[in-house]
TrEMBL record:
A GO MF term: ATP binding
GO biological process: phosphorelay signal transduction system
Modified residues (4-aspartylphosphate): D76
GO CC annotation: plasma membrane
Domain Response regulatory as annotated: residue spans: 27-146
Protein name as annotated: CheY chemotaxis protein or a CheY-like REC (Receiver) domain
Alphabetic keyword roster: Phosphoprotein, Two-component regulatory system
Length: 273
């Protein structure tokens, strides 16, 4: 669950692939409030032969960074407790005070619009990794940012946003993206479990009329439905968050109930893959 202590060794689900020898000495910190994304990126890093830890919010990430060495940070932007923007801004402040060299911090985001780019640059992030994240996409990122020091690029490297997909991919395309069907099954099981927990909390938030909790759970569900690529559901969640924050829960009750049913249908389709 989000907020647990950093994990060093996710389940072994893939065979290793060829990677540069110097990656074996590198350490990566993965920060995301979704356990599914932590499991995914951690598993892919293990396949690539890269040591890593994971944690569930920016505050935990700062604690890890202060006590252990990392060569790269991959962080979600929007998280409870402390988001990726605030975490990066605070860590850059500490680097300036201590005079330590900057650790590359890469945003992990479901969308890459002008606002997201401006916020990432403004807080001191170095680049972007656009969900959904596959093995070869992550390998390209590591090739750039885990290169020996003299080879590091002096400019921000932006991972291009992908075209939005409206249909779920096939078993074959998911296997090609994530490396094996065993990985996909593990990810889908974790995704469904987290999404159903968030749906249950969303029901409680609707009953109590808690706009803050409703917005938080909508954001987490948006991350869940974007796991395999952006969908109309993700856009629907973003609109609902704005509406709930502007006018409250009661006014949007019917729209929230409709969104709940749509997510249930989405999860059923994933189960049938």
């Amino acid at each position: 669950m989000p907020g647990n202590e950093p994990r060093r060794h996710p389940p072994k689900v893939l065979h290793s692939v060829d990677s540069p020898a110097y990656w074996q000495q590198a350490r990566v910190l993965v920060v995301d409030d979704h356990a599914t994304y932590r499991l995914l990126v951690g598993s892919l890093l293990q396949v690539l032969g890269v040591s890593h830890e994971t944690c569930g919010d920016g505050r935990m990430a700062l604690q890890a960074l202060a006590s252990r060495h990392f060569d790269l940070v991959i962080s979600d932007c929007r998280m409870p407790v402390m988001d990726g923007y605030a975490m990066t801004r605070e860590w850059r402040r500490r680097e300036r005070i201590t005079g330590k060299p900057g650790i590359p911090i890469i945003a992990m985001t479901g969308r890459l619009g002008l606002e997201e780019v401006q916020r990432c640059l403004g807080c001191g992030m170095d680049g972007w990794l656009v969900k959904p994240i596959g093995l070869w996409q992550l390998r390209e990122l590591l090739t750039e940012w885990l290169a020996p020091a003299p080879m590091h690029a002096a400019q921000v490297r932006v991972q291009p946003a992908r075209r939005r997909r409206e249909q779920l991919p096939s078993r074959a395309s998911l296997t090609a993206t994530f490396g094996s069907w065993a990985v996909v099954e593990t990810m889908l099981a974790s995704l469904a479990r987290e999404a159903r927990e968030d749906l249950a909390m969303l029901v409680q938030a609707r009953i109590s009329g808690d706009a803050v909790l409703t917005s938080q759970r909508l954001h987490r569900l948006a991350g869940s439905v974007a796991f395999l690529g952006a969908t109309r559901l993700e856009q629907h969640a973003a609109v609902l968050i704005d509406r709930v924050q502007a006018s409250g829960v009661e006014v949007n009750r019917q729209a929230l109930e409709l969104f709940h049913r749509e997510v249930e249908r989405y999860l059923l389709r994933l189960h049938k893959l």
